[in-house]
């Protein structure tokens, strides 16, 4: 029986990289993250009311409630797989649904193709699907920068963190990790509506990515054969306690400069600069995609070592 977590994770990583989340399944039942998003949005509509203190308490309650539900779902599925051997296939499939190696490659490639062909409008539209910043006025370097930063950060959020928490806590840990990441992306903002209600989601996401972000940064540096010095120097300057590690690592690995001024919903925001050198271009994005896949392979190898029979 495939009962060893590292072996299960090795299969999950390889299968997800090969086939991703099947379109036929998505068309019929959507994706677990879509279900999580609907639940988060429903609680945001119904619980995010009252004074700031009430909103913060409601936000904490929402995170606790959602974590309890998805954690129990993961535990029940894991116990079912342990009790009935064929159900391990269901566990593996559920695991592949929570990782994003293939989909991240596809989203970045959707930006890279028009960027290389000079179709800036299409490149802006494609990068707008994977970043939260305003993209309608970005030049080609701005598009490439946004895509490289998203690639680096999503390597942690969508791959390393879920894999880490699967190893630590099995399917419940994986489900909870994905829920918290989804909640942070939806309500973990500092705008007037979500500053209090999304506080718990944002802090929980910071905590869950504390170790994975640094592991992701290290994997990127090894994959790029450089970048450790840049990562250690620049990552602490990032506004996020975690996002700076993979982003600074990618900046160092590519020898390019990330960060700088952006805008969100028309409001300018300045972020610390990460790395030194010219701004990314289409060639840098292609190089970043290569570094990304080498980092994925390094993750597979590390998990494979843990799964190797003792």
Describe this structure in words.
By secondary structure, the chain is mainly α. The chain has one domain (5-307). The protein is built from 13 helices and two strands. The chain has helices at residues 5-19, 23-29, 32-47, 52-83, 88-97, 101-117, 120-127, 140-187, 199-208, 210-224, 228-234, 244-254, 282-307, and strands spanning 258-264, 267-274. A two-stranded antiparallel sheet has the order 1-2. Strand 1 and strand 2 form a beta hairpin. The longest helix is centred in the middle third of the chain and has 48 residues, at 140-187. The chain starts with a helix and ends with a helix.
Keywords for this entry:
310 residues; mainly alpha; two-stranded antiparallel sheet; 13 helices; globular
Quick synopsis:
Helices cover 72% and strands 5% of the residues. It has 310 residues and is mostly helical.
What's the tally of helices?
A: 13
Strand order, sheet with most strands: 1-2
How many structural domains does the protein architecture include? 1
In angstroms, what is the radius of gyration?
19 Å
Instruction: Tell me how many strands there are.
Output: 2
Distance linking N and C termini: 16 Å
Mean pLDDT: 94
Work out the helicity level. Answer: over 70%
Strand portion: under 5%
Q: What would the principal axes of the Cα set say about the shape?
A: globular
Low-confidence stretches: none
The helix-and-strand class reads mainly alpha
Oligomeric form of this entry?
A: single chain
What composes the largest sheet? 2 strands, antiparallel
SSE topology string? HHHHHHHHHHHHEEH
